[in-house]
């Protein structure tokens, strides 16, 4: 057995090669089976110096049980970097609640990636995940992908209330497209941007949520508070949005003195006439790249 320090494990079988207290990172990018999860649980509890974990259960259709087993038995006390891919794994609100509780214990986390797309976490699960995120006061980088999850207004409220507590966030990638946010859910999502003053990079996908004109306007109005933004990507396609242009939605390009990349997708709506906005954008900012889909 090796006595190396700062070891990175890339598959389950490598656990037996090293002293557990020499393992600082676990990056298992291939999907793991139920049997491997048991081995993983038995070993990870002995890794006292662990700071980075990357784990995939993508497409594991027995993952309802596997995720429950995993989350009930794992401790990530000293982990600062965590990436979990549980997309297309039949996760429901019960497993999502366990995940939210576990996230709430990540006192030292600064980098968190959650891929949860194509599941059924619903309002209850999203709300609990939001509560967990609200306890991650040191979080600076967050990827939250939960498209196609039957999340509605209450779920949007919980996510917003949680994420707005992460006031050190500089990078946020949030994909909640093809859910049931509606205008009220978009209003809740917009509220979190009042507190996220440190954001420099935002990728927000609210496509196919029926947020309508006033929901879109609410989000764009509050994003105007994030004045340190350098890259901004917003997708609001297919949302029953009408209007004569981005100005009518409340987007103030002059607020972004540091912005160099702007991409806004308003396709499959009734919003037209972007020419005036494009001309103004080039004059009022340091934009290097501007992409508008209308």
Task: Kindly estimate the percentage of residues that lie in beta strands according to DSSP.
Answer: 15-25%
Mean residue pLDDT? 88
Query: What's the architecture of the largest domain in CATH terms?
Result: Alpha-Beta Horseshoe
CATH homologous superfamily designation of the largest domain: Ribonuclease Inhibitor
Task: Describe what you observe in this structure.
The protein has 294 residues and is an alpha/beta fold. It has two domains: 1-52 and 63-78, no CATH class; 91-293, Leucine-rich repeat, LRR (right-handed beta-alpha superhelix) (Alpha-Beta Horseshoe). Helices cover 30% and strands 20% of the residues. The chain has eight helices and 13 strands. The protein has helices spanning 34-44, 63-73, 93-103, 122-133, 153-163, 182-191, 212-223, 275-284, and strands spanning 7-9, 23-28, 52-56, 81-85, 111-115, 141-145, 171-175, 201-205, 231-235, 242-243, 261-265, 270-271, 289-293. The strands form two sheets. An eleven-stranded parallel β-sheet has the order 1-2-3-4-5-6-7-8-9-11-13, with helices on one face. Helix 4 packs parallel to helix 5, helix 5 runs parallel beside helix 6 (182-191) and helix 6 runs parallel beside helix 7 (212-223). The chain is elongated, with a radius of gyration of 20 Å. The model has no long low-confidence stretch (mean pLDDT 88). This is Kinase domain protein, putative. InterPro entries: LRR_dom_sf, RanGap. Keywords: GTPase activation, Kinase, Leucine-rich repeat, Repeat, Transferase.
């Amino acid at each position: 057995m090796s006595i190396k320090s700062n070891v990175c494990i890339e598959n389950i079988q490598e656990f037996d090669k090293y002293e557990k207290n020499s393992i600082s990172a676990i990056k298992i990018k291939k999907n793991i089976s139920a049997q491997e999860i048991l081995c993983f649980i038995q070993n990870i509890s002995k890794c006292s110096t662990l700071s980075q974990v990357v784990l995939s259960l993508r497409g594991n259709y027995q993952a309802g049980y596997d995720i429950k087993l995993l989350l009930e038995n794992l401790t990530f006390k000293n982990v600062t970097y965590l990436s979990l891919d549980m997309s297309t794994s039949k996760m429901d609100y019960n497993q999502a609640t366990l995940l939210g509780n576990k996230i709430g214990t990540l006192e030292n986390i600064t980098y968190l990636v959650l891929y949860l797309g194509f599941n059924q976490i619903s309002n209850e699960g999203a709300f609990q995940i939001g509560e967990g995120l609200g306890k991650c006061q040191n979080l600076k980088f967050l990827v939250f992908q939960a498209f196609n999850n039957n999340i509605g207004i209450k779920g949007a409220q919980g996510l917003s209330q949680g994420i707005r507590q992460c006031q050190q966030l500089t990078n946020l990638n949030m994909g909640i497209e093809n859910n049931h946010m509606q205008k009220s859910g978009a209003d809740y999502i917009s509220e979190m941007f009042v507190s996220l003053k440190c954001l420099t990079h935002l990728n927000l996908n609210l496509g196919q949520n029926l947020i309508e004109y006033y929901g879109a306007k609410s989000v764009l109005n509050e994003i105007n508070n994030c004045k340190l933004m350098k890259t901004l990507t917003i997708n609001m396609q297919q949302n029953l949005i009408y209007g004569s242009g981005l100005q009518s939605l409340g987007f103030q390009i002059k607020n972004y003195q540091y912005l160099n990349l702007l991409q806004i997708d308003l396709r499959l709506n009734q919003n037209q006439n972007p020419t005036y906005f494009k001309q103004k954008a080039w004059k009022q900012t340091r934009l290097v790249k501007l992409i508008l889909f209308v």
